[in-house]
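Could you please review the protein record set out just below?
***
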Amino acid sequence: MKEKTILAIGAHIGDAELTAGALLAQCAVHGGKAVTLALTAGEKGAPVGADIEEYRRSKIREAEAFAAELGGRAIVLDYADGLLPDNDEVRFRVCDVIREVKPDIIVTHHEKSMHKDHAACHRIVVDAWFYAAIAGFQRELPRHFAGKLYFAENWEDAPEFRPQVYLDVSDGFSLWEKAIEHHWFAVHSTSFPYKEYYSHLKRLRGIEGRKGYCECFMILPEQRHVVRSLEEL
């Protein structure tokens, strides 16, 4: 099996680690490279009374610790949580990361979300994926085309999400369970049981996919087709 490079892009630290973290871990245990990119630190989710800037720094440390468990890398941009700009400045920064990391697979948010940063992140990444692939957009690094673009299953992005691709993450699940412990909110949040929810969801999707554990994704509308020969019918 060819070793893969996966770039998982979330609006906030923790988004990609929860929704696609087991896929990243699966990639890592099979010798691939796992990279996370957070467009904001997600600092507005600080516990009541906590210092926002200190919480932001702690979130970055958590992202780095998660990535280190996978032998990978965490990148965090400096946009403010809840105020992610939906413009070409951000798109070209993401484009530059794509060209640097050279992923085979990009994972990001589904287009429909209750969170404005998630919805903006989806649009930003789809455009950045295009920009990164076109040599005419001249940047410091040469073009790179990531062959697969997947949109992750997230409880905040639930409207109109339909599982279209089941990816077996059974080999990476135990590593993900260990790595996600670095994210304080995933384990200790009083507003939502993040680790518990996503652990059960991965098992449920695994049952549906006749595997141990799966993560589910959507794909672009133009990619939603099945080609079969007569012999395969």
